[in-house]
Amino acid sequence: MSSGSLKYLLYILALLLAQEIIFRICFPLPELSNFDRINYMLLDDSGKRYRHLRDQKWYWQSSPDTNAIFYHNMNRYGFRDTEWPVSKKAGRSRILMIGDSFVEGIMAQQQETIIDGFKQAAGPDKYEVWNGGMMGAGLSSYLQLAADMLPIFQPDHVFLFISANDLSQKPVTIPELHLSPEYFNPWKPRIWEIMEQLSNDSPIRFRWINVAKPYIPSVKAASNPWQKREAQLKGHVTPLLETAMKAGTYSPFRTNNIFNEERIFQLPPNLGDALPFFAYFCEKFGAKPVVIYIPSRNQVSTYYFPFEKELCLQKCLETVDLTTPKYQIHQATLARACQAQQIPFIDLTHTIRNYEQKGTHLYWNYDDHMKAKGYLLMGKTVIEQWKAR
Questions:
Q1: pLDDT at 45
Q2: What is the DSSP string of 318-343?
Q3: Does residue 110 sit within a domain?
Q4: Alpha-carbon torsion angle 108, 114, 116, 119, nearest 10
Q5: How far apart are CA 348 and CA 260, in angstroms?
Q6: If you write DSSP's letter for every residue of 89-119 in order, what string do you get?
Q7: DSSP letters along 174-205, please?
Q8: How many whole angstroms separate alpha carbon 148 and alpha carbon 154?
Q9: Cα–Cα 20 to 30 A to 71, which of 102, 219, 317, 369?
Q10: Which of 386, 299, 305 is nearest to 349 (CA)?
Q11: Percent helix, strand and coil across the chain, each rounded to 5?
Q12: Which positions ≥6 away from 218 have C-beta within 8 Å?
């Protein structure tokens, strides 16, 4: 080969290498190709189910409460967290926290979640704590996420947060299989990988361009109940809240919320084999389980009833008090079930109620999620009670 040809070949190789480096920087991919939050969620306006939620940005707002917009920066598996490497960091315990929107931290900023409160109380870099919160998910999804993550990521501890709205008479689905990990081929050219992903309708994000999508659909979306059921919903909420629900600036799914809670909280929840499975699977893969209960704001305070009443103009009584013992059945049921499986159980009802009774309101007035101080308090309380056992 002549020196000119060799130079030309080296030039082409250098261009290809530079292109590969640029593409890998601009279009990052996770280690696993088949693990993604979408596997545990039902999505979207049209009923379409995307293949991935990775690396996206979402936002939540509640205009009756605040002008603030709360952005969620997702990692490459679609969770509101930093990146999750398969390999553990030496000398640090890995803690996986699983739950719904309270764990994800709806109505708080990125660094104001339960996970952040836990880490702040634990001290810097003592634990590797992961946010496995999934807005809109339930107990069946939590169990499947645990079943898929434990064999692959090998957490040392799994904290299962069960919110008041997770428990009902519906049966819980127990996972029959767990995920067999598939990895992206590190040797495959990134442009080839991108073309394959696009052909599968998978989202490919450019690292520096990430337009936030709304969690709450406007009335233009089929998933907003006001699009098809306005005649039935009209008059159940105040005009202010109706306008916000239609605009997508307030959750349209909160109509008659306290009416439904008043009925559900009096009934023992159907846990099925959820906790035996959780205990068994954690033991199988060397993780220590913990179960935490997050109460509804109406279980700990009557302060929010006037705001709930604006969402329940026709069905609700003029007054109802869900803080009384007959509405605390879920906590007692969970406590007994955890004791039977020898799972540590932390009930946050007492701590939150104490703050509410002193006039420190931890939840928003209209949105039923917590403010930042509520999430941070829960994280701090969880580690204190966990360490005290």
A1: 45
A2: S---TTSGGG-HHHHHHHHHHHHHT-
A3: yes
A4: 170
A5: 22
A6: PTT-EEEEEEESHHHHTTTS-TT-SHHHHHH
A7: PPS------B--TTS-HHHHHHHHHHTT----
A8: 10
A9: 219
A10: 299
A11: 40, 10, 50
A12: 224, 246, 247, 248
Residue 128 DSSP SS3: strand
Q: Which residue has the tokens 């079943």?
A: 147
Identify whether the C-beta of residue 185 lies closer than 8 Å to the C-beta of residue 124.
Answer: no
In a domain, 72, yes or no: no
- Tell me how many domains the chain contains: 1
Tokens 């967290």 identify what position? Answer: 81
Distance of CA 381 to the CA centre of its chain: 19
Tokens of 82: 């930093």
Q: What is the token pair recorded at 345? A: 């159980």
Tell me the mean pLDDT per 10 residues along the chain, length 389: 72 82 86 91 54 81 98 94 93 95 98 97 88 95 97 98 94 93 90 82 74 92 92 96 97 96 96 97 98 98 97 92 97 97 98 97 98 98 94
**Residue pair 77/54 in contact by the 8 Å Cβ criterion:** yes
Lay out the sheet containing 345-347: strands in order across. Answer: 127-133, 93-99, 157-163, 288-294, 345-347
359 and 366 Cβ atoms separated by less than 8 Å: no
Evaluate whether 129 touches 119 at the Cβ level (below 8 Å).
yes
CA distance 205 to 33: 15
CATH of the domain at 291: 3.40.50.1110
pTM score: 0.93
Q: What pLDDT sits at residue 51?
A: 60
Would 46 be classed as within a structural domain? no
In a domain, 25, yes or no: no
